Amino acid sequence: MLKPNIETFIGCDAEYCDARIVLYGAPFDSTTSFRPGARFGPSAIRHESFGLETYSPYQDADLLECAVFDSGDMELCFGSAQAALDDIESRADEILHDRKFPLLLGGEHLVTLGAVRAAVKKYPGLHIIHFDAHADLRDDYLGAKLSHACVLRRCHELLGDGRIHQFCIRSGDREEFQFAKNHTELHPFSFEGLEQTVCTLRKQKTPVYFTIDLDCLDPSAFPGTGTPEAGGVSFIQLLKAIRMVCTANIIGADINELAPSLDSSGVSTATACKVLRELILALYKQNHS
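^ that's the sequence the OP posted. Answer follows.
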């Protein structure tokens, strides 16, 4: 019998009513400050995921054992960052209301703000764990308050001091680093301090939103991104860190900033697919432990 061509991330074809985790794509990159193309990240990840196995030897786990629903990409207004964020927030609201886990595929990093707006309404004590090359703490970028360069600054306005934990940061202007000293917990260059942070949050049963900007990876492993920064972490270091974070009370997550057209080899997209597979499996273990 013929069936419609519906492309999901590999192994993520559960029915919505049965799913614990819901993927939703936000193909938006209208505030990208350097090289555009991240809007094509979510669809590329789905399409290229079929080059992967569903089984992970890193975690001895299989996506076929998980109940994950892929809702596809949202249709977002490229001309209005606020309209796009409102739509993302509404989608995240719906998923959280149905007591499911929202897992967002960007797009540029600004899309995280819509998801965090939804999460903090349900979890007022929310903290954020943030992996990135960039601090994303500018108050504005060329006069724009809604920019991927400002996303964590806008999140701070929702959460307040001491509730944003940043790792791998190796780029930003002086004002961003000064702001971080007073208002966030910024760990430059690496994952040093992550284990202690996760341990504290886990003991306190703190609700945590987990956002991964894939440019935390070194460009030698992940060149297909809008603003590559030398000096990043390795793929294996990132996987280890993801598994560690997922032992905390993670209530929502995202990965973002793959720009597939900027790496004609396809290696960056393949890497993003593998990161997503490992993130899903680690989250699923957390929710079924």
